[in-house]
Amino acid sequence: MPEEASFVDWISSKVDLRAIDVVVSGAKGLPDLEPMYEAVITGLKQRAGQLKVSGSRHYNPGWHYAIDLRAMLVVCEAIIRSALNREESRGGHTRLDFPETEDALENVNTVLRQQHERMICEYVRRPEVPEDLQKLL
Known about the structure:
Helix content is 45%, strand content 12%. It is of the alpha+beta class.
């Protein structure tokens, strides 16, 4: 990474942010979306593995970004995987290929777990709100 370039500028120049935008945008449901998701996440993880920052951690934002990058990639992958898994439209989370809201999914949470280097998505029924909290609602 060139020393004169900030980390954000450097990573932005290495990643096709338009590809990520298409994955999480309202264009969900296109047949090539899953392979594109895999390519984007795999490419980002490979680049993150090669990342090196010079200098010490003192007054060096690039060093801190480099440390945070793995966590940011996990969050990015979770958001994209959840969006691709969703088969309904709810609030701001819309799908062109699933325009309706599913009543069956109203009382579930989407839970993502890492399993064998792959993130899996499942629905877990929300617990009932305790009586003392229901009084506050």
